Every structure is written in structure tokens, then in C-alpha cells.
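To whoever picks this up:

The nightly regression suite flagged NTE family protein as changed. Nothing in the input moved, so I suspect the structure step. Input below, exactly as stored in the fixture:
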Amino acid sequence: MTRGGRVGLALGGGAARGFAHVGVIQVLQREGIRPDVVVGTSAGSLVAALYAHGMDGAALQQAALNMEEAMIADWTVPLFNRGLLRGEALARYVNQMVQGRLIEHAALPLGIVATDLVSGQGVVFRRGDTGTAVRASSAVPGVFSPVPINGRTYVDGGLVAPVPVQQAREMGAELVIAVDISSPPQALPQTDPVRVLLQTFTIMGQSINRHVLAQADVVVRPALDGVGSADFAARERSIAAGRAAMQAALPRLRERLQALRRPLPASR
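Regenerated output under the current build:
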């Protein structure tokens, strides 16, 4: 395949809706497209980490289908911690899946986005413990405990980059494929504090995304209506939605790749 500009894959946050990222990767793999860099926020950071460390579309789907909520969630008492979930189980799960390899040892250049809780600035982890970085990227304030790393404290990357398009460009991508799995705000019971917090993030993320996604070359939006952020039962539907959305976006991707003199291989 003739290579031109560097291609970046930016995987956005959306909790359990993140299974859709697997379907997107499966279509890219089928078409012979391997991104030069991959960057993820929150749920996207989990998929990005596993993919960058060498798991292909089939392996990612198998991992998704085998995953149980208990593997990535460890409840704690809010009175004694700053969040409802410590997130340590998520870090252990990621490190087990990548066999303990550091971010800088991934097969693909990998970026994991989190937010510095003190400065409010976004940070892209490109070195260090993979599981801890994914844990930090996924630490929704009030739901997960903030994560200390090297004397700083980090929370969910979705606060600054719901879909990390700019971060992919900063890592050298000339063409960015952005995968937006955010959900529209929904009517929720006002007495459920966790769902209210997630709703707040949804509203904020949509406002940021209107500006961020305009900077992407190809935007992929899986049809995930009715799939909630905590809906692990819909993982197969989410994967299929990711495949369908990426398939629909292929003409636009082909156009952009040709503009960079990196033609898309013939469809299989």
C-alpha cells in the first residue's frame, strides 16, 4: 500500500458504549488500514490500549464478550474516598491484557488522555504504566476516585477531550479518524446521583465535541440509540453498530486517503 500522511485513530469516551470502537477497528483491519497512531479517552483509552498493544479485531471482540463488569469495577465507600469506584480493578485488567507492557512499548504509538485535576489541563500519557493511565483517563469525578501519578492527580480525559482529535494531531497524525460514541442527554430519575453525574458529562461533552469534531477528517458516529453508558448487555449490538458506522464512513476515508496519496486498498 502506498503510504502518504500519517493516520491517527481518535477513540472517544462513552463508558459501555465503547464496545462500538471494536467494530470500527474490525472494519479498518478488514480494509487493510492500520493507523500510525491511536489515542483514546476514557472508554476509548481502554480499547486504544489493547489495540495498540497488539490485539486485533477478533481478539478485541473476544475480550469484549468475555468481559464482566466485576473485572473492571471495584466498589468502595464514598465516605472514605473521593469516588464511588477505586478503579484499581480496571488497571489490573488492562495490565493483565497487555501482559504488563508499558505505554511506550506498544506496537503502535499510543496516547491516553486524562485531565490534571489541579490545573484543569489535558495530559496525554505516552509513557508509563498502561493500566494506571487507562484508570486515570476513565476516572469520572464522583464516580471513580482520582488517580495519583508522579505527584499529580488525574481524572477523566473527557473533561477536556471527549474525542481526542487534537491530541492525535499533536502525535503527528495528518489525517484523523474520530469515533464519537457520546450519547444524547436522556430523561433520568433525579434521585440517582451516579446517572446525574454521567448526564452532566454527556451534556458537557456534546458542547466540546461540536468544536473538536470539526477538526477531524473523518467522523464515525455509531448508531447507539437506547444503549446506555452502563449497558454491558448491549455489547454485541454496540460492536455491530461500530462496524456499520465505519463501513458507511469508508467513502469519506477513501477520499481523504487519496488526497494524502495513501490510497485505500481494494475492498475485500
